[in-house]
Design a protein that fits this description.
This protein has helices spanning about 15-25, 45-60, 75-80, 90-100, 120-135, 155-170, 180-185, 205-215, 225-240, 255-265, and strands spanning about 1-10, 30-35, 65-70, 85-90, 145-150, 170-175, 200, 245. By secondary structure, the protein is α/β, with parallel strands linked by helices. Strand 5 (about 145-150), helix 6 and strand 6 (about 170-175) form a beta-alpha-beta unit. The longest helix has 18 residues, at about 45-60.
Length: about 270
């Protein structure tokens, strides 16, 4: 079974897609063909989006699903003219909140992802720059790091650091454990002053070998034996130094970030 889903928004569409994806994953056995239509913030754009949705309905013979975060009711009504199943993300919450707060909402386009708070936006950019300059030990000045991810090469440190920076404004550095570090089985000197900010990442050997093979095909670096050796040494080091550790094999970046924040007591909110 296959259905078409449109994420429609008067802004970036990120909120609609994030919420929609979370809902759709609850339905097994159905393939969803998804499309994002952002910046539907005028009558002309809403009519064009409705035509696109209606055309898909005519082509497939199946009613499309629209997950909508447009705040202008007039635009939503135009979209509803497509005949699709309309799911308004905000509707279930607005009425009860208005009643509870004794205040009517003031619909405004692009508040969720617009530059409404320059200080917080700048914090995200600074954190992203920090993650890039402190990637793989390129810059070892960790004094300003909120946390430092430690692990063998290709265990998920870089994407996790960038996700934390972009979405939470967390300054995360990372340090790749080299063969010298692993052979000594002791914490590298440059990390010792920041022990409380360290968090280890590990991964299953088979998956690590797969990732490394894509990066350096046919190399010793990518062999299963080498991966097993490095991971075993890293695990021994983490236990010896009492560093908290998380296996990233079957864990999404979002989950990794949340679990690290919880264990290190870092409280941050999405920007």
């Amino acid at each position: 079974m296959r259905r078409t889903v449109f994420y429609v928004s008067d802004s970036t569409g990120i909120t609609a897609e994030t919420i929609g994806h979370s809902i759709l994953t609850q339905f097994d056995g159905i393939e969803f063909d998804t499309h994002r239509i952002p910046f539907v913030d005028s009558t002309d754009k809403a009519q064009a989006a409705a035509l696109r949705i209606k055309s898909e309905y005519a082509r497939s013979g199946q009613r499309p699903v629209v997950i909508n975060t447009a705040v202008d009711q007039a635009l939503s009504e135009i979209l509803a003219g497509s005949g699709a199943l309309m799911l308004d993300v905000f509707a279930p919450f607005v009425g009860p909140l208005e009643a509870e707060l004794g205040s009517k909402r003031r619909p405004a386009v692009n508040r969720a992802h617009g530059l409404v708070d320059f200080a917080r936006y700048e914090a995200r950019i600074n954190a992203t720059n920090y993650a890039l300059t402190h990637d793989d030990g390129l810059d070892v000045n960790y004094a300003e790091a909120d946390l430092i991810l430690v692990g063998v090469s290709r265990s998920g440190k870089t994407p996790t650091c960038l996700y934390m920076a972009l979405h939470f404004g967390v300054s995360a550095g990372n340090y790749p454990l080299t063969e010298d570090d692993l052979d000594k089985l002791e914490l590298p000197a440059r990390l010792r002053p920041y022990r409380a900010r360290l968090f280890g990442l590990t991964i299953e050997a088979g998956r690590l070998a797969q990732i490394r093979e894509q990066r350096r095909p046919g190399s010793t670096y990518a062999t299963l034996a080498q991966c097993r050796k490095e991971l075993a040494q890293a695990d021994q080091l983490f236990r010896r130094e009492n560093i908290p550790v998380l296996n990233t094999t079957h864990t999404s970046i979002e989950e990794i970030a949340s679990k690290i924040f919880a264990q290190l007591g870092i409280e941050r909110h999405l920007f």
